[in-house]
UniProtKB/TrEMBL annotation, chain A:
This is Cobalt ABC transporter permease. The keyword Membrane applies. Keywords: Cell membrane, Membrane, Transmembrane, Transmembrane helix. One of its GO terms (cellular component) is plasma membrane. InterPro entries: ABC/ECF_trnsptr_transmembrane, ECF_transporter_component. It is a multi-pass membrane protein. The lineage of its organism: Bacteria, Bacillati, Bacillota, Bacilli, Bacillales. It is found in: Membrane. It comes from the Bacteria.
TrEMBL record, chain B:
This is ABC transporter ATP-binding protein. Pfam families: ABC_tran. Residues 4-247, 298-530 form the ABC transporter domain. Keywords: ATP-binding, Cell membrane, Membrane, Nucleotide-binding, Translocase, Transport. It is found in: Cell membrane. It is a peripheral membrane protein. It comes from Sporosarcina luteola. GO terms for cellular component: ATP-binding cassette (ABC) transporter complex. Belongs to the ABC transporter superfamily. One of its GO terms (molecular function) is cobalt ion transmembrane transporter activity. Gene3D superfamilies: P-loop containing nucleotide triphosphate hydrolases (3.40.50.300).
Automatic annotation (TrEMBL), chain C:
The chain crosses the membrane at residues 46-70, 77-99, 105-127. Keywords: Membrane, Transmembrane, Transmembrane helix. The keyword Transmembrane applies. It comes from the Bacteria. This is Membrane protein.
Length: 255, 560, 198
């Protein structure tokens, strides 16, 4: 059953860390790479992130996720490398095209930042079950109604994807063509997407009813089936992360 | 003391014409432990009544509301849905949309309502275990709700509301979207709960089940309560069909035989109540005789197909299809739908060939075949996207090259045929699901193909819908079209088709006259298909042969 | 609708959010199956705004990018703000009557595209010095930089080229679908109906 998640089940210390701590890490890690503009520092942060991924036994799973951003990275390297406004120091020339050191330097920095962004999120999403994260947020005061929205998306999208085959069959059975010129393909977009939309909007009524009759809007205090997961060192880690973060920020602005 | 009191209940949906009341002056009471059946045609207001009893009307739907509903002493109008939810559990047709979507296991899914009500943890676990046991789903606790079959899902839905310990359980056609096996699973647990003394209100089209369980039946029509009486009283009405209700088979047979209880004048409603000393004559009536119409011909030779390699769904099928309408029966997963998709070239055979009037299907594309073969899928919601019925019906005809004039004409004729004349300009999603099925049917029929294939046309249809489908099948055959029909409803097969093919595990285990098909006990068992109710009844009344229609039974003295 | 800013969301409006995100997802999926040169990945957000107002639209937008970030591409977190703004603008303008006819819907599409580009530009500059990862947009960006135009202008042009045509098509499709929705669906998300006692 596809539940729409990148979560990889492994037995590692990173998996046992409080999801909120990992969320904090992700935020700090990304923010820091944008606060410091020193190549070496950014590289160090990236290495840190990689180390955590390795410790979480999920390093190889981040590569395809980075791959999704390949086009963005490639575009950054080419465009910034060749055309960045600061074009002073000529690095070398490829035929008639001059390549400047400043542009490449910037392109390299941004690439490091993008890779770190994706990897830092990877620390969170590869090692955390989405429902654990949402449950952790719920305990911190996220409204249960909003928690419902986050969790149901993960299950409803695969159900909707499963519809695509049926709809394509039904419309092809009525003589709709899906291959041909651009206009023809564009014309078949609505017959394909239309039933999905009508189906899912219509279903919102039934699902709302199903929720209502199970007390979704009850005003009284609610309870939880599962005990609160206790994560070890949650507070310590959070304090540690915050200290590091503040230290780097101070260092950046003092030096 | 009654658990439910309804007094002069009136209700109109918002944005509705002032004169159209979905519920019109209903009054009745329900006592603790009673089992109430609600019957009537698709537009009778049964679902709206279920909403009113669970507080969704008026709190969720708003609109205009008159009269009172009391659950025990609780006045529905002055409480919120979440308060009423603890007293009244509602289960409806579509099992899929009753899963909350926010829980990843069946166990947690059942907990959803309990968490909202603030039930202490220990008690939650107890209640969940108890309701899983009652619904026979103990083994499913760790499964993802969406990975279950329809019948299992529906039982999870029931378990989820039962765990909230309601005083009353309302079931609104809980089996209409399930296959026979799933439906049987649900009925089994409903029977169990009824015996356990739970107060149950059930809307249902399968009258046999209501005849067996119900203490009382409410017959509804156009938002009004026509009768509130004992099952025997309601089912003995001679005008039942006018209200879109088909009486149980025993009643139909008793009507034909004129077997009434001498004191009450009522028909027996279950087989047990049939007088044992009846002298019945059985005579087989062969209708229409051999077919005279010529139709297109499909020849299938050594057909093989599998979705995964080495796991064939269709295994070496050989058959010739032509002439009178053909029924295909067999359990889910037997390959019936795959077979018709192959005929329609939506799938490509891995081996073997399909020849349609001398042309191999592989030499043609699905889009080209669209003008030769029409395939009507089970779920109309997978295809409907236009905002007017007429445009939806014209989509196929225009695609296959009919001129707008011809397409309009065909579309109108077919809407007339399926009984939707006058609804051309309506939005398909403002119609009921049963009517949408008819729209989908018309949209294929308007393509005027030589061959028409139906996948489960009777599912979710009431009595009049089924009669309509039967009429359509006959009229297509009279126009010289080849009609093939996948069906789960054996009563309908017996009544409508001359030729039946039994599918089991990707092959045909029988192909021949319907009367012989239902005599193949081994083949039927292999395909997990039951004989028609009438056939079973005749057998119990002492007839060894196969009876397919009511007019094949007569009391002996009727011949004198 | 009494006010479009009501934060008290009905259950139907909440359940609309996952549906909208699913529609976004399938819009994108079908567009790529049909090899259309557009994303059309926000039809659901736009429809949710038209049906249930700017708040629901904005939440749908944010949750869409967060979930997409979680399940496919973390970079989409960055554009959560853009998605929220798409939902907000559509919801406000729809409420003010900009979906009463097709001409107005085109204007709405242009406005949504323009504002989306405006919001995306600073994000693009902060996070990747101005590029978008879209080949045509970045080609324009590079050309403008080569002619020594300012970075922000080049980046804005990059976003405009990418966003405006896509959003015009998205809003137009959504408008056509919205107009065709049955009454009972359109009324469902309205939280302010009264019970009339008869």
């Amino acid at each position: 059953m596809n539940n729409m998640t990148l979560y990889v089940k492994k037995d590692s210390p990173v998996h046992l860390v409080d999801p909120l701590t990992k969320l904090l890490f992700t935020f700090f890690s990304i923010t820091l790479t944008y606060i410091v503009s020193n190549h070496l520092a950014v590289l160090l942060i990236l290495l840190c992130t990689f180390t955590i991924l390795v410790a979480g036994k999920v390093f190889k799973y981040i590569l395809p996720v980075i791959g999704v951003s390949f086009l963005l990275i490639l575009s950054i390297i080419i465009v910034q490398g060749f055309f960045h406004p600061d074009r002073e120091t000529l690095l070398f020339e490829v035929g008639p095209i001059p390549i400047y050191k400043e542009g490449f330097s910037i392109a390299f920095l941004i690439t490091l930042r993008v890779v770190n962004m994706v990897s830092a999120f990877g620390v969170l999403i590869l090692t955390t079950k989405p429902d654990d994260l949402v449950n952790a947020l719920l305990r911190k005061g996220l409204s249960p109604r909003f928690g419902y929205v986050l969790l149901s998306v993960l299950q409803i999208i695969p159900q909707m994807i499963a519809l695509t085959g049926k709809i394509t069959d039904a419309q092809r059975a009525r003589g709709m063509e899906t291959e041909g010129g651009l206009w023809l393909r564009f014309k078949s977009f609505i017959p394909l997407l239309g039933p999905v939309i009508l189906n899912s909007l219509n279903e919102t009524r039934e699902r709302s009813i199903a929720l209502e009759i199970r007390g979704f809007n009850a005003k009284g205090p609610r309870t939880y089936l599962h005990k609160h997961e206790t994560y070890r060192y949650g507070l310590h880690l959070k304090i540690l992360l915050t200290v590091i973060f503040v230290a780097v920020v101070v260092w950046r602005f003092v030096s | 003391m009654s658990v439910l009191t309804v007094t002069n209940l009136k209700y109109r949906y918002p944005a509705q014409d002032k004169s159209i009341f979905a519920l019109n002056d209903l009054s009745f009471t329900v006592g603790k432990g009673e089992f109430i059946g609600i019957v009537g045609r698709n537009t009778a207001g049964k679902t709206t009544l279920c909403y009113a009893l669970s507080g969704l009307v008026p709190h969720f739907f708003k609109g205009a509301y008159g009269g009172d509903v009391h659950i025990g002493v609780m006045d529905v109008l002055s409480y919120e849905i979440s308060d009423i939810a603890a007293k009244v559990g509602l289960v409806f047709e579509n099992p899929f949309s009753q899963m909350t979507g926010a829980k990843f296991t069946v166990y947690d899914e059942i907990a959803f309502g309990l968490e909202n009500l603030g039930i202490p943890r220990e008690e939650m676990h107890e209640r969940i275990r108890a309701s899983m046991q009652l619904l026979d789903i103990e083994g499913l606790g760790n499964k993802n709700p969406f990975s279950l079959s329809g019948g299992q899902m529906q039982r999870v839905a029931i378990a989820s509301v039962i765990a909230m310990k309601p005083d009353i359980l309302i079931l609104d056609e809980p089996t209409s979207q399930l296959d026979p096996e799933g439906a049987e699973e649900v009925f089994r647990v409903v029977g169990k709960m009824a015996e356990g003394g739970m107060t149950i209100i059930m809307v249902e089209q399968k009258m046999e089940k209501l005849a067996a369980y119900a203490d009382r039946i409410l017959l509804m029509h156009d938002g009004k309560l026509i009768q509130d009486g004992k099952p025997a009283e309601v089912f003995s009405r001679d005008d039942l069909e006018l209200y879109g209700v088909e009486p149980p088979m025993v009643v139909k047979v008793s009507r034909t035989l004129q077997v009434r209880n001498e004191e009450t004048g009522l028909y027996p409603i279950t087989q047990k109540e049939m007088p044992a000393e009846l002298d019945i004559a059985f005579h087989v009536v062969e209708t229409s005789g051999k077919n005279t119409n010529t139709t297109s011909e499909i020849v299938v030779r050594n057909l093989h197909f599998g979705y995964e390699n080495g796991n064939d769904v269709i295994r070496g099928l050989n058959v010739s299809l032509q002439g009178e309408p053909i029924a295909i029966i067999g359990q889910n997963g037997a390959g019936k739908t795959t077979f018709v998709k192959l005929l329609k070239a939506l799938l490509t055979p891995q081996r073997g060939e399909i020849v349609i009037d001398g042309v191999r299907s592989t030499d043609s594309t699905a889009a080209k075949l669209a003008s030769r073969i029409g395939l009507i899928f089970q779920n109309p919601n997978d295809q409907i996207f236009k905002n007017k019925v007429i445009d939806e019906v014209m989509f196929g005809p225009l695609n296959i090259g009919q001129s707008p004039e011809v397409a309009t004409e065909n579309a109108k004729a077919m809407l007339e045929l399926v009984g939707l004349a006058g609804k051309e300009e309506e939005n398909p999603y403002d119609l009921s699901l049963a009517e949408r099925k008819m729209v989908a049917m018309a949209s294929i029929l308007a393509m005027d193909t030589d061959i028409v294939i139906f996948d489960e046309p009777t599912m979710g249809q009431d009595y009049s819908g089924k009669s309509k489908v039967k009429e359509i099948i006959h009229s297509l055959y009279e126009q010289g079209k080849l009609v093939i029909c996948i069906l789960h409803d054996m009563d309908f097969v017996a009544d409508t088709f001359g030729r039946t093919i039994i599918f089991s595990e990707g092959g045909m285990v029988f192909d021949g006259p319907t009367r012989e098909a239902f005599a193949q006990e081994d083949a039927l068992r292999a395909a997990r298909v039951e004989q028609p109710h009438l056939t079973q009844l005749a057998r119990k009344l002492g007839y060894e042969g196969i009876i397919l229609k009511e007019n094949e039974l007569q009391t002996a003295n009727m011949f004198e | 609708m009494k006010s479009m800013w009501s934060l008290k969301l009905s259950t139907a409006a909440l359940v609309l959010i996952p549906a909208a995100i699913g529609i976004n997802y399938l819009g994108k999926l079908f567009a790529s199956l049909l090899k259309l040169p557009l994303w059309v990945d926000s039809i659901g957000t736009v429809l949710a705004s038209m049906l249930a107002g700017p708040i629901v639209g904005a939440i749908a937008g944010i949750v869409n990018n967060v979930v997409y970030g979680f399940t496919t591409d973390p970079v989409s977190f960055v554009y959560a703000i853009t998605s929220a703004v798409i939902g907000l603008v559509t919801g406000i303008m729809a409420y003010k009557g900009w979906i009463s006819n097709i001409g107005k819907a085109i204007v709405l599409g242009l406005a949504v595209g323009f504002i989306a580009a405006t919001v995306s530009t600073p994000l693009n500059i902060i996070f990747w010095e101005g590029t978008t990862g879209n080949i045509w947009g970045d080609a324009l960006f590079a050309t403008m930089l080569a002619q020594d135009m300012p970075l922000w202008l080049a980046s804005f042009a990059d976003s405009i080229v990418v966003d405006v045509p896509d959003k015009v098509v998205t809003v137009l499709l959504s408008f056509l679908i919205f107009k065709g929705l049955p009454k009972n669906v359109k009324n469902m998300y309205d939280n302010t109906g009264e019970i009339e006692r008869i």
